Every structure is written in C-alpha cells, then in structure tokens.
Amino acid sequence: MSTILNDIYELTVQGNYNEIGGVVQKAVDEGIKIDSIINESLSKAMLYVGDKFGEGELYMPDMLLAAKTMKTAMDILRPLMKGDENLSEKGTLVIGTVKGDLHDIGKNLVITMAEGQGFKVIDLGIDVDYEKFVEAINEHKPDIVAFSGLLTTTLGNIAEHIKTLEDSGLRKQVILAVGGAPVTREFADRYGIEIYAPDASTAAKEFVKALSEKK
Ligand code: B12
Questions:
Q1: What mean pLDDT do residues 183-200 have?
Q2: Closest Cα to atom 84, ligand 1: which residue?
C-alpha cells in the first residue's frame, strides 16, 4: 500500500477526523484513484475497527470516531464521484437500512455509486419501517428497491420487509437488492432477492445490468 493510503488507513483506525480531510485531499491531488482510497484504506480500516470491537479490544466510542472519520473523508470524495449531471436518468432506486439497524455508511456509499451511474435515488435512511418502503414505491415507482443490513440480529427483518411488499401487491413490480457486511449471495437467494453485491461499485454495476435485462 502506498504511504498515503496507509496514512488514511491509520487515521481512520485512530478516528482522527481532524486530520483525515487534509490527507485525503492530498491523495486526490496526487492522482490516487478514489476507488483505492475507499477500498484499500477507508473500508479496510472500518473492517479492522469492527473486528477489534468484536474481540473486545476497541469500544463503542472507537467505532463512532472511526465512522465520523470515514464520513469526513467521504464528504470530500463524494462530489468527485458524481456522474455527469446531464446524464439522462437510468432508473430509480429506493434504498434504506433494514428495520432495527442504524448503520448507514455502506448504504451511503451505494447511493453515491448509483448516482454516479445516473440513477435517481430515494434514500429512506436508517431503521426504516416496513410501511415506509410501500409508501415510497407507491410514490416514486422505483425500478429497484434495496436493503442494507449490517447486524445479524436484524437482518432477519428482511423477511418482514418482503412480506409487507407481497401483502401490498408490490413485490413483483420491483427488482430487489440486498447488501451489507454479513449478507451473502446465499442469503439473498433464500429470500428470492434478485441482486446481491459485496461492495458499492459492484452494486451500481449490478443495478445497471438488472435494468438493461428488464428493458
Ligand atoms: C461504524 C460501525 C458502527 C457505527 C455506525 C455508524 C453509521 N453511521 O453507520 C455505530 C458506532 C453507530 C455502530 C453501532 C452498533 N454496532 Co456497529 N459497526 C460499525 C463497523 C465498525 C463498520 C461498519 C461500516 O461502516 N463499514 C464500512 C462500510 C463501507 O462497509 P459496509 O457497511 O459493509 O458496506 C459495504 C458493503 O457491505 C456493501 N453494501 C452495504 N449496503 C448495501 C446495500 C446493497 C443493496 C448492496 C448491493 C450492497 C451494500 O457496499 C458497501 C460499500 O462497499 C462494523 C464492522 C464491520 N465489520 O462491518 C460494526 C458492526 C457492524 N457493528 C456491530 C454492532 C454489534 C453494533 C452495535 C449493536 C453495538 C452496540 N453494542 O450498541 C450497534 C448497533 C446499533 C444499531 N441498532 O444499529 C457488529 C455487528 C455484529 C453482528 N454480528 O451483527 C459489527 C460487525 C462489529 C463487530 N465485529 O462486532 N456501529
């Protein structure tokens, strides 16, 4: 890993949100790819912090500081990732974090990448109520409805999300997508969810592919 990518990794692990901005800007100015900054430094640092939290070596405030640091970095990177504003809309995506789950960093990355591919995105936020998805589908008529889930304890709520869509007669009108650290292709298959992706850039590619297959 280049020194600057390593610095970004270390600052994120330390939760140093005061210094991260300057270093990320320097990396951008040096021509380092945004993809590398996100995948090789920021996301890896979050995984490390999560692992250490799981092992009892880091604590809740450490996770919060790391999250704040990643958000500060993303505030710089996000505007650079936007697609051509003049792109005609490729489709509409409704996305939210499953009920009971407050994690949104990964979801927000997926949103940025989908917008970069020309999608109009309706972000329902975190801990989204089952009915909220129904309301959003009725209002925005999306092509894709996506769920983000980071907690194994609340991932099962996806069953209720899907049941609510089925009971409202909306399930067949949309393509479903799911992702988040504990989610796998097998998990998606179990619930009949069409799209799964392990990261945000693959997610955006899968969204585009699903729409072109639909048309
Ligand atoms: C930051 C963090 C927090 C922050 C969240 C801040 C925020 N605004 O999101 C805070 C401190 C609030 C937090 C709280 C908690 N957390 Co937490 N957290 C994390 C941590 C360290 C990083 C998550 C993250 O942002 N990763 C970086 C992003 C970029 O990655 P990502 O989310 O996986 O997203 C990528 C892909 O998964 C994919 N993707 C994501 N969504 C979607 C959606 C679609 C449709 C697709 C296709 C793809 C996709 O693309 C993304 C980009 O590449 C993880 C560790 C980990 N290994 O995940 C723990 C972790 C998820 N947390 C955990 C826990 C236990 C908690 C708490 C319960 C702690 C507590 N005791 O209170 C609470 C839960 C509160 C709640 N009800 O939600 C556990 C979960 C364990 C489990 N088995 O469920 C983890 C794994 C840590 C651990 N090892 O114990 N957490």
A1: 96
A2: 151
Distance in Å, CA 49 to ligand 1 centroid: 10
The answer to whether residue 28 sits within a structural domain is: yes
- What is the C-alpha to C-alpha distance for residues 138 and 94, in angstroms, rounded to an integer? 11
What CATH number did the domain enclosing 23 receive? Answer: 1.10.1240.10
Yes or no: say if 35 and 28 are a contact pair by the CB < 8 Å rule. no
Q: Is the CB–ligand 1 distance for residue 76 below 6 Å?
A: no
Average pLDDT, the chain: 92
43 and 95, same structural domain?
A: no
H/E element, 32: none
Ligand 1 contact via 54 beta carbon (within 6 Å): yes
Determine which residue's CA is closest to atom 30 belonging to ligand 1. Answer: 106
Residue nearest (by alpha carbon) to ligand 1 atom 80:
151
Same-domain check for residues 21 and 99: no
Mean pLDDT of 21-40: 94
Closest ligand 1 atom to Cα of 146 = 45
What's the token pair of residue 72?
């500060």
H or E element, residue 123? strand 119-123
pLDDT digits (tens, 9 = 90+) for 144-164: 999 999 999 999 999 999 999
**Residue-number span of the structural domain to which 145 is assigned:** 91-214
Whichever domain contains 144, its CATH number is: 3.40.50.280
Closest C-alpha to ligand 1, atom 69: 60
Residue with structure tokens 């990396």? 27
Q: Which of 81, 107, 131 is the last residue of a domain?
A: 81
